[in-house]
Amino acid sequence: MLNSGARINEIQNSEESKRLLAAQRQTYTDAKLVDLVNACVCLLLPLGVTVAQIFLNVPSEAIILVWIATVVAGICLPKRSKHLVDEAAAMQQRFDSDVFGIKFENVSRDDRRIASQAGRYRERHDGDGKFRLDNWYSVDIEDARPGDAIARCQRQNTEWTKRLLKRSICIEICIAVIVAAALAVLVLRLGINPFNLFFLFSIIGWMIQRVVECRDAFARVGALAYSLSSFRLSSKEDILRVQEKIFEYRKAPYLVPDWLYALFKGRDETATMN
């Protein structure tokens, strides 16, 4: 039986629901940390070596070690990140299943893992208002009928997701352009041995991987937005179809940084409440 707006508000603020939210947030944060390590090893480290080779005589042994590190990290770390993202998406799917009163597929059943991750999250963010867990769906649904209430929650989820994704990718593109321009100036103004630019291939490879992740995320959020515009959404069948798109986006490899989420949380919440 689909839950009404009043029932959704009640359940989403229960201790069990907040435990699931804490667990999924901590698991996504773990995945972002893995991605950060991957970026440091596969992007910043080669970039640092490339700049160092312009001015210094870097030993060949160090270059070989850095190359090995980039290869190993580029293979192992994305797999670990994907596992964590899938795990977090399943936790959040269970939250939505409980809150909406619908039995969704792909929900997490690992209560021990959920408890562990929730405990870690609460230790880190106890008293931090920017990462509060109550009123996850802040849209006004108190008097809404079951199907309409769920549709409003799904729309808020989608709009918030689109805003964060576009903002994050724009910031990342700006940073990439600045770094690329600075490196190009160094290369063009100085007499550079082509061998010293060897690690540019590693950097370019990481950037290509990042572009693919961005395209994947945009495609998934585009499919989600289309499903919201094409379905009636008051029926259980359409809600299930939209939720499947939401779950697919939550498994996207591109993750928005926690600091960006916290920075714009108030603004995005206000913009998506209607």
TrEMBL record:
Keywords associated with the record: Membrane, Transmembrane, Transmembrane helix
Transmembrane spans: 33-56, 62-78, 169-188
InterPro entries, per the entry: IK1_05631-like
Keyword Membrane (UniProt): yes
Pfam families reported for this sequence: S_4TM
Record protein name field: Uncharacterized protein
Organism name: Slackia equolifaciens
Lineage: Bacteria, Bacillati, Actinomycetota, Coriobacteriia, Eggerthellales
